[in-house]
Amino acid sequence: MADFSVDAAQLLQSVFGATYGNISNAIPLKNKQGVPIIARLSIPRFGYKIRKGDVIEQLFFEAFEFTPVLLLSVRQEKNIVKTPVQGRNGTIKELISDGDWQVSVKGIFLADDEGNYPYEQVARIEELRSVPASFPVESEMLNLFGIYSMAIESLEFFDTEATPTIQAFSMNCTSDNTDIDLKIRQGL
User: Fold this and answer.
1) Distance (Å, rounded) from C-alpha 87 to C-alpha 64?
2) Which residues contact 66 (CB under 8 A, 6 or more apart)?
3) CA dist 34 to 3, 6, 62, 136, Å?
4) CB atoms within 10 A of CB 170
5) pTM
6) CB 53 within 8 Å of CB 122
7) What is the pLDDT of residues 10-63, one digit of tens each?
8) Which of 32, 46, 65, 139 is the most exposed place for a label (fewest CB within 10 A)?
């Protein structure tokens, strides 16, 4: 069994080009390898439906805990209808509402206990990306902003220099916190 440790701050700086100070000492939560847990993101088991011909099939995505080396950021814009009025500078703002939250997830999948490439974690996130539905999320940070469900818009994997036992990724998501059931009526 290989003994390996990771300096999370150094790893995040080298992969994502950002400086996070001495997060190894600032964050009290650590995984079993002693790596600081920067942000938590879990996907609980959930069901979704797909259509295969005339049959609707119920499938399930099994629970998944994201890597401990993870950065989350959220951004929200307002939906504003702007109406220009002849002879007036600027526009009239009306119908103002909140837009969806844009969630950025950047992370690094670490090698397993034997130092092997994280094939299983990469396969699970790709499986999640392929789900044709939004999915529930459990995260203190995301839940703080009222984000309990989201959908993946894009997923990117990229190489890290001279480190074949880790896999960096970036995922862009949109919140989906609408509890609206659409009813389809025949003959309309």
Assistant:
1) 57
2) 40, 41, 42, 43, 105, 107
3) 11, 8, 26, 28
4) 16
5) 0.71
6) no
7) 655 565 555 444 444 444 444 454 544 467 899 999 999 999 899 999 999 999
8) 32
Phi-psi region at 48: left, alpha or beta (left = phi > 0; alpha = psi -120 to 50): beta
Helix segments in the chain, DSSP class H: 8-16, 23-26, 119-129, 140-144
- Plot region of 88 (φ>0 → left; ψ -120 to 50 → alpha; else → beta): beta
What residue type is assigned to position 7 of the chain?
D
Structural domains of the chain, with CATH: 8-175 (2.40.30.200)
Query: What does the alpha-carbon distance between residue 177 and residue 74 come to, in Å, rounded to a whole number?
Result: 14
DSSP string over 109-130: EPP-TT----HHHHHHHHHHHT
At 123-174, the pLDDT tens digits run 999 999 999 999 999 998 899 889 999 999 999 998 877 677 888 999 999 9
- In this prediction, residue 6 has a pLDDT band, given cuts at 50, 70 and 90, of low
Determine contact, residues 130/67, Cβ cutoff 8 Å: no
Specify the 3-state DSSP secondary structure of 71. Answer: strand
